[in-house]
Amino acid sequence: MGNINFVKENKEVVAADGANLRLKAMENGIDIYKVWGKMMNCGGAGQCGTCIVEITEGMENLSPLTDVESKILKKSRIIIALLVKP
Ligand code: FES
After folding, report:
1. Ligand 1, residues 21, 26, 42, 68: which to mutate, most atoms within 8 A of Cβ?
2. What residues form DSSP beta bridges with 43?
3. Which residues pair with 75 in a beta bridge?
4. What is the pLDDT at residue 80?
5. Among residues 58, 63, 82, 86, which is most buried (max CB within 10 A)?
6. pTM (two decimals)
7. How far is the CA of 85 from the centre of ligand 1 (A)?
8. To test ligand 1's pocket by mutation, which of 31, 47, 84 has the most ligand atoms within 8 angstroms of CB?
9. Which of 31, 36, 38, 50 is the pocket-test mutation for ligand 1 (most atoms within 8 Å of CB)?
10. 50: which residues sit within 8 A by CB, 6+ positions away?
11. How many CB atoms lie within 10 A of CB 24?
């Protein structure tokens, strides 16, 4: 179990090992989607990349990037929220 600190929202939430970052954000009222993502997201299927968030610290606590993440992302510190585990 660990904590996720959503810096911009100044909110810290508790997450079990293996928790889904996108779902933890949604459960805690944190909107990670921009305008396009609100309308066109894939619902967490890993197909659209609209749930991208920046990890400012604690990258060592996350699961390794998947092939999908690697293909979508250009910066190593930015990851797809649905695919990471705290
Ligand atoms: S919601 Fe589509 S990849 Fe995250």
Report:
1. 42
2. none
3. none
4. 61
5. 82
6. 0.78
7. 15
8. 47
9. 50
10. 33, 34, 36, 37, 40, 41, 42
11. 19
The per-residue pLDDT for 64 is 84
Query: Counting every residue, how long is the chain?
Result: 86
How far is ligand 1, taken at its centre, from the CA of residue 2, in Å? 23
- Scanning the chain, the segments in alpha helix (DSSP H) are 21-27, 35-40, 67-72
Q: What is the pLDDT along the chain (86 residues), one digit of tens a residue?
A: 689 999 999 999 999 988 999 999 999 999 999 898 899 999 988 888 889 888 888 888 888 877 877 777 765 455 566 555 55
Beta-strand runs (E) in 1-86: 2-6, 11-15, 52-54, 78-80
- Amino acid found at 39: M
